[in-house]
Amino acid sequence: MKLSELKELLKAKELTNHISLNVEIRSVIASDLMSDVLHSGVPADLLLTGLANNQVVRTCDIAGIKAILFVRGKVPPGETIKLAEECTIPLLVCEHSMFEACGIIYSKGLKPLE
Amino acid sequence: MNQEAILSEEFEISGGDFVNGGRASCLIKNILKEIGIDAEILRRVAIAAYEAEMNVVMYARRGIMKLVLTPKRIIIKVEDEGPGIHDIELAMQPGYSTATPEMREMGFGAGMGLPNIKKNSDKFNIESTVGKGTNLEIIINLNNKNV
Question: What CATH number is associated with residue A63?
Fold first, then answer.
């Protein structure tokens, strides 16, 4: 599924400017613990998180995760959005809880890692 | 061990600076990516460097991260001025953490940092003096894809 389709599915808003949403999403990780995100052997394509700070973007840049979706309407500070634009990582935000967002995505056939 | 370095760079890390924390590791990742280091090796180096950098940000006053590239391996050295580690064996256990609530709010302090550095390294050395600081040496071998 493309990130742009996922955006429609979750009624999400785009936070970054000029970063393409034409990104293929096959696997997803959902976590507020960056250490857990870094611990996985292969990178997921998308991170779902309720944590909204610079380290989320750094973690995805380091781990090779292509996109970030913030749940529960959590919008990170402007500096975090700017950092994501520098790293070419698209940021989205949706109003769903983590549980709901994961359920919706899972029901559409997207899979966890491994 | 430290045979003819092709590349050698140094980066400063400021303790407590969560805004810029991780910057040095991202720079290292970009430098190595530009050179054409294999993606899997690049990811291991980046993750190990980032976990080490965030440990300095979280626990130490300041630190230096050195990147050395030789024809056979990538070496990351992190030297910090900080409280040091009382019991290295305990700190290496997955889940053991002395993180503060502030660190946990940043998504860290799950007690996976040092074990994750070791997991991503081919060789990992750690030395620490309580009240002085901690030195890490992370070695990741290059494979023939990089030559």
Answer: 3.40.1390.20
Nearest-CA distance B138 → chain A (Å):
16
Cα distance between residue A7 and residue B131, in whole Å: 50
Which ipTM score applies to this complex?
A: 0.89
Domain annotation covers residue A19: yes
Does a structural domain hold residue A9? yes
Chain B touched by A55 (CB under 8 Å): yes
The boundaries of the domain holding residue A19 are 3-107
Q: Is A78 on the interface with B (CB under 8 A)?
A: no
Name the average pLDDT for chain B: 92
Q: Which residues of B touch A (CB under 8 A)?
A: 18-19, 21-23, 25-26, 29, 39, 43, 46-47, 50-51, 54, 106-113, 116, 119
Dihedral sign of CA atoms B135, B27, B14, A15 in order? negative
Query: How high is the pLDDT of residue B147?
Result: 44
Structural domains in chain B plus CATH codes: 7-146 (3.30.565.10)
Find the helix or strand (DSSP H, E) in which B123 lies: strand B123-129
